[in-house]
Amino acid sequence: MKDRFLEIMPNPVIVYNSEWKIIKINQPALQFLGYSSPDELLGESIQTLLPAGKTDLVDELNSLLQRAHKIHPGKEIQHVRKDGALVKLFAQFKISGVEKDPLKFNFVESGIIMGDGMEGHDQRLKELKCWKVLAENVPSLIMMLVDKNLHVHCSIGRGKNVVSDFEAESLVERLPGGLVKVLKPLLEIAFEGTSVSRELMHGREHYAARLTPLKHPEEGPLCVIVLQNITETKLAERRLKISKKEAEEANEAKSNFIAKMSHEIRTPLNAIIGFSEQLSKTRLTKKQTSFIEVVNNSSHHLLSTIDDILVLTKIESGQVEATEEPFRLADVLKAVNDVLELRYKSKNLDFQIQCDPDQQEVLLGDPAKLRQVLINLVNNAIKFTKKGGITLICSTQENNPERISLRFMVKDTGIGIAPDELESIFKPFHQADNSISRRYFGSGLGLTISKDLVESMGGNILVQSTLGKGSTFSFALTFKKTTKQLPERDYSCSFLPEAPVNHLRVLFVDDDPVNSLLVKVIFDQYKVKSVFASSGEEALNRFSSGDYNVILLDINMPGMSGIDVAQRIRKMENKYGLKSRTRIIAMTANILRKHIEEYYKAGMDDVLLKPFKEEHLLGKLVNHTFERMGERSDMAHSSRLEKTDPDDNLNELLKITKGNKEFTLLMLDAFIDNGKTMKKKIKASLKARDYRGIAESAHRLLASVEQLGFRKTADLLRLIERRYMKKKNIEEDPQLIKHAIREIDACIASIEKARIEFL
Ligand code: ADP
Predict the structure, then answer these.
(1) Other beta carbons within 10 Å of 264
(2) Cα of 270 from ligand 1 centre, angstroms
(3) Residue 129 is inside which H or E element, if any?
């Protein structure tokens, strides 16, 4: 076998016996040293090949040999070619595996030729050296050269855990039987000339096998098998997978725990915030008012801390990914102002929004995240500024037909931040000055969250600040442009105290008596007609026997959940062919997006987050009233809410004119004229974005509409008047105005009909 090994080796190999006599030498070695036949060297002493007088080299080789049992030491040794030229050889020792003849060893060399004449040899030697080092240092690796009869021609590597009999000449004897069996089909492929790589299993052991075909001019097809036992790697991989899964599960458990805790804390907070709000409306002493204020502030602080922790948990567990949806910058900026208006006004601070890009253009991005970051930054600016003002600047950095890059800046004239604190303020729970938390409410999470959110949208937050002068936080984001339409749903929850809710019939479903009591107190004040149910089952009974405009439905109820109730109600509506769909608003303390999506899927129309304030609750009802009225006016005069019977309107007028025919006709004509003119004006103002013009026209129509008993249209006009009169820059709301125009048309048509009948 050893002879075959020598023959197959592409580089020179010389084998010595214990007396340093050459006993074997292969063809490349002869060629390398300039000899033509092995007979010229066989039986010769090593001295023949060493430079004259260099006996110390033999001592050196002997000392290498002493260590060859354990390791395979190697050293460059000068040799002499037959023509006298010096060549350097890399001498490496390998004791043959035969124990009873320990001094038999292989002197496997590789070397560097000094002189010339053997091109390409260097590279081959280097490759071989690499393979050898690899085979000898990876204990589980073995390389074998086999023929079609599974005869092993040579092998290198120790093959620990791979070979059963290292010395055997047949593959069948050398490897465990099962392994040969799985190797056989691969060998067939390799002998047809194709390399194969596979992972194999034998018992509990895993192997990586690579089979490479070789064509030998005399021997016919051969195959190099490289086999490695990779069981340990596989086990480690499996252990890693298990620990990864465990870590993910632990993380998920943490997130669920925090979400659940947040839910549990938010629910009673609803009662605290709600009742302290109700309490503050009653007659109180100064002291009591100040106590209520503390309760209110503290509960809001607690609420915002819980929200921050929840958002941070979501960010940490990778649940926060930037979404892409169409939005308008105007809506985001308006939301920032709406949320913070009370705060900056109560501190007498000036807040300005300077925006150079077109705010109406529809962009693709994550408006909720952008809004949250801007609210956090402006909120901080308000918090840390005593005098002066805050400016939110939005400027264009780059603009082309596909995308726009915007820079947002929040500048304040506040207390500023010390230079050595500038980096650490972005760390969780960090506040620039420890005394700050006592003076200003805050948890030190806002900036951490903002930084993460901006990064998730592809930007980076920067801060510049001068202590005592003010700070500027800025970031840049790029948004794609789109021709997509904005989604129609607008679930903003601005409460309009002027809007009527007393005509509404509401079914309120909640198992929590405290929450129900709170809502009852609010509904009584606003004369909302309401029915209360304390379970899903009761809600379904009430629904089937009553007629409601809106259902406020708690999600977490024992027994039948809010989701079940909503699904059943939708089924009942379909089954009985009910024309109008009752609005269902989910009430929940759950703010996870995936859960909220579930509610919509179950057939709900909107979500009211707990804890809610009175204005949020009523705001939701008002929003849905208007949506509902829009639907009904399309259903041509079948509205229960609007009085459209011309006789009724006429009776109202006759009461005023006391039956005077001429006067009545005059009034009717005046109404029709005025109605048509104002309608035109509203349309023109809407086109010109003249909001004050809209408000004025609505005002001028209001009195006559009300006099003729079109109460709902009057309410609508009053709402438009208030909305557009108060703010100069208010966002246009074509939905509301278009709806009003349809209502005005319906009133005119109704009066025209009454006029004909009156004549
Ligand atoms: P919080 O405001 O809840 O304390 P943040 O993470 O939002 O937490 O802010 C961390 C700290 O950074 C604040 O406590 C404050 O020291 C500092 N800081 C943030 N914004 C401003 C600002 N506009 N002016 C001065 N200091 C600020």
Answers:
(1) 12
(2) 27
(3) helix 121-137
| pLDDT 10s digits, 443-483 | 677 888 889 889 989 999 999 999 999 999 999 999 999 88
220 Rama sector, left if φ>0, alpha if ψ -120 to 50, beta otherwise:
left
Q: Which residues neighbour 574 within 8 Å (Cβ) at sequence distance 6 or greater? A: none
3-state secondary structure 167-190: CCCEHHHHCCHHHHHHHHHHHHHH
Phi, psi values for residue 192, rounded to 5°: -85, 0
Global pTM reads 0.43
DSSP bridge partners of 75 = 91
CB proximity list for 16: less than 8 A, separation 6 or greater: 22, 23, 46, 105, 107
Residue 571 φ/ψ region, left for φ over 0, alpha for ψ in the -120 to 50 degree band, beta for the rest: alpha
Nearest to 362 by CA among 394, 329, 337, 333: 329
Rounded-to-integer distance, Cα 117 and Cα 228, Å:
38
Residue type, position 456, single letter: S
Distance CA 60, CA 89 (A): 14
| Half-sphere exposure of residue 616: CA atoms within 13 angstroms, side-chain side | 17
Q: Which of 177-186, 320-329, 515-524 has the lowest mean pLDDT?
A: 320-329
Taking only the tens place, the pLDDT of each residue in 166-204 is: 566 788 887 877 888 889 999 999 998 888 989 888 888
d(CA 750, CA 515): 44
For the CA of 443, the nearest atom of ligand 1: 3
Token pair in block for residue 385:
């500024």
Using CA positions, which residue lies closest to atom 17 of ligand 1?
432
Crossing angle for the helix pair 734-758 and 646-657, to the nearest 10 degrees? 70
How far apart are the CA of 440 and the centre of ligand 1, in A?
A: 9
Residues forming a β-bridge with 200: 207
What is the C-alpha to C-alpha distance for residues 283 and 520, in angstroms, rounded to an integer?
20
Question: What is the C-alpha to C-alpha distance for residues 645 and 652, in angstroms, rounded to an integer?
Answer: 11
Q: 380: Cβ below 6 Å to ligand 1?
A: yes
Q: What distance in Å separates the CA atoms of residue 647 and residue 342, rounded to the nearest whole number?
A: 47
